[in-house]
Write a structure and sequence with these properties.
- By secondary structure, the chain is mainly alpha-helical.
- The protein has one domain.
- About 60% of the residues lie in helices and about 0% in strands.
- The chain contains 3 helices and no strands.
- It is elongated and about 70 Å long.
- The termini are far apart.
Length: about 80
Protein backbone atom coordinates (compact mmCIF):
# COMPACT_ATOMS: atom_id res chain seq x y z
CA UNK A 1 0.00 0.00 0.00
CA UNK A 2 1.44 3.37 -0.96
CA UNK A 3 2.00 6.18 1.51
CA UNK A 4 -0.62 8.32 -0.19
CA UNK A 5 -3.22 5.59 0.06
CA UNK A 6 -2.42 4.99 3.74
CA UNK A 7 -2.78 8.71 4.47
CA UNK A 8 -6.11 8.83 2.64
CA UNK A 9 -7.36 5.78 4.54
CA UNK A 10 -6.29 7.32 7.85
CA UNK A 11 -8.01 10.62 7.02
CA UNK A 12 -11.20 8.81 6.03
CA UNK A 13 -11.09 6.79 9.24
CA UNK A 14 -10.82 9.96 11.31
CA UNK A 15 -13.74 11.55 9.48
CA UNK A 16 -15.91 8.46 9.97
CA UNK A 17 -14.98 8.31 13.65
CA UNK A 18 -15.93 11.97 14.11
CA UNK A 19 -19.27 11.41 12.34
CA UNK A 20 -19.99 8.43 14.59
CA UNK A 21 -19.16 10.45 17.71
CA UNK A 22 -21.40 13.31 16.56
CA UNK A 23 -24.26 10.85 15.95
CA UNK A 24 -23.86 9.42 19.47
CA UNK A 25 -23.84 12.95 20.92
CA UNK A 26 -27.02 13.90 19.05
CA UNK A 27 -28.84 10.75 20.18
CA UNK A 28 -27.72 11.17 23.80
CA UNK A 29 -28.89 14.80 23.89
CA UNK A 30 -32.38 13.88 22.66
CA UNK A 31 -32.25 15.97 19.51
CA UNK A 32 -34.00 13.46 17.20
CA UNK A 33 -37.33 13.95 19.01
CA UNK A 34 -36.92 17.73 18.84
CA UNK A 35 -36.22 17.53 15.09
CA UNK A 36 -39.28 15.32 14.60
CA UNK A 37 -41.48 17.74 16.57
CA UNK A 38 -40.23 20.76 14.66
CA UNK A 39 -40.72 19.11 11.28
CA UNK A 40 -44.33 18.36 12.21
CA UNK A 41 -45.16 21.99 13.05
CA UNK A 42 -47.29 23.87 10.56
CA UNK A 43 -47.32 27.63 10.38
CA UNK A 44 -50.03 29.88 9.04
CA UNK A 45 -50.56 29.57 5.30
CA UNK A 46 -48.79 32.19 3.23
CA UNK A 47 -50.70 34.58 1.04
CA UNK A 48 -49.83 36.79 -1.88
CA UNK A 49 -51.27 40.31 -1.75
CA UNK A 50 -51.48 42.61 -4.75
CA UNK A 51 -50.75 46.13 -3.49
CA UNK A 52 -51.51 49.30 -5.43
CA UNK A 53 -50.08 52.02 -3.20
CA UNK A 54 -47.59 52.49 -0.38
CA UNK A 55 -50.35 52.96 2.22
CA UNK A 56 -51.57 49.39 1.66
CA UNK A 57 -48.00 48.12 2.05
CA UNK A 58 -47.48 50.04 5.28
CA UNK A 59 -50.81 48.88 6.76
CA UNK A 60 -50.13 45.22 5.90
CA UNK A 61 -46.57 45.42 7.27
CA UNK A 62 -47.69 47.00 10.55
CA UNK A 63 -50.57 44.53 10.97
CA UNK A 64 -48.07 41.65 11.25
CA UNK A 65 -46.04 43.25 14.05
CA UNK A 66 -43.98 40.70 15.98
CA UNK A 67 -44.03 37.99 13.32
CA UNK A 68 -41.46 37.17 10.65
CA UNK A 69 -42.30 38.75 7.30
CA UNK A 70 -41.03 38.41 3.77
CA UNK A 71 -41.35 41.35 1.45
CA UNK A 72 -40.71 40.70 -2.24
CA UNK A 73 -40.88 43.51 -4.78
CA UNK A 74 -41.11 42.79 -8.49
CA UNK A 75 -40.60 45.35 -11.20
CA UNK A 76 -41.25 44.85 -14.92
CA UNK A 77 -38.14 46.84 -15.84
Amino acid sequence: MSARRRALTAALSVVLLLLALMAVYVVKRGYPSEFRDRLGERGAPAQVVDLHDIGQLQAAFNRADGTPRLLVLFSPT
